[in-house]
Write a structure and sequence with these properties.
Blueprint (H helix, E strand, L loop, with lengths): L2 H17 L1 H7 L3 E7 L1 E2 L5 H4 L6 E2 L1 H14 L1 E2 L2 H6 L1 H7 L3 E8 L2 H14 L3 E5 L11 H15 L13 H10 L7 H12 L4 H15 L13 H9 L3 E5 L13 H19 L5 E3 L7 H10 L2 E7 L2 E2 L8 E5 L2 H4 L2 H7 L5
Parallel strand pairs: 1-5, 1-11, 2-3, 4-5, 5-6, 6-7, 8-9, 9-11
Antiparallel strand pairs: 1-10
Helix pairs in contact: 1-16, 4-7, 8-11, 13-14
Bound molecules: zinc ion.
Amino acid sequence: MNANLKKFLKRTAVKLFHLGSAVFWGFNRGNLIILTYHRVLPDNSIESRDEQPGMIVNPETFDMHLRELNKRFEIVDLEYAINNSKLLAKTGKNYCAITFDDGWKDNFDFAFPLLKKHNVPATIFLVSSFIETSNTFWPGRLIKILNNLQSASKDRSTLTSTLPDSESKAWLTSCLDSTLSDPKLFVDAAISNAKSLSDSAINQHLDKIEEQLKLTRSPSDRVILNWDEIDELTQSKLIKFGCHTKHHTRINHINNKQLLKEELVDSKHDLEKKLNTSVSLFCYPNGDQSTQAEQVISEHYSAAVTTCKGLNKLNNLAPYTLKRITMHQGGSYDAARFSAKITGRM
Ligand SMILES: [Zn+2]
């Protein structure tokens, strides 16, 4: 399909969903709508330069989302909604729960003040071994490497030529598609191609490349929440925490029982010890699932959220495969786009 026609159809669909949203929610009652956010960062912040656009909304957009949600739905704590789903189903109303994946520091800096302003609860899914460290996730590290190489050479076909180590050069070259001129598509393709390896293999390659490019991370570069911030979020009573594994390892890449236990169970116990409360919700990294993992999760958690798009029927919840709707700036920057997006049909 021609790109202009595609854009036109998308714009028309947004308008129709926006105009028909009151009718849509009139016919679709008794749902739990779970929204997924990752990062809330101001436009042009340094951190947003090294991040996938699909991971970010800016504070103004997040403020608008909360205002719009408060007008349409009762916003509830996710765990409360899951535990009381049958009761909520009887009201015939639609409920919304807000979730944040990964435990970014910007959730504290930019999202929390807005959640307080609108008095809205949210659940943050933490990666237990990353808390209070200067670690970050490999897609961001890969983007930073690409930005660094691109600042030295604009020519994508020779981007990796300055890397001294031939193994690093061969791996990074294999991830890149220099025919993609659009910067977003170029980065998205590199991340998608890198995913053919396990997370630990990707991280090993990135460790070596960062060393060659002298890209070191210091404690002042911390982008993940620390325990003081988590404590303040807890004290507010608005924020609850779930588990998002120990190292953000994609579960479908784990074949070893011990590693699976470490990622799914040890992480939960580590969080419970520090938070001094039980952690009953799990979030699949990258949305990847496996039968073996689902078995372990159902033994240790009361529910799990996925990246499958859609609404959840309160009278028939599938607690270990809860659907969500992912929010990012490009798809939700005005009220029309946002109201179309939250129907789960866009
Ligand atoms: Zn994640």
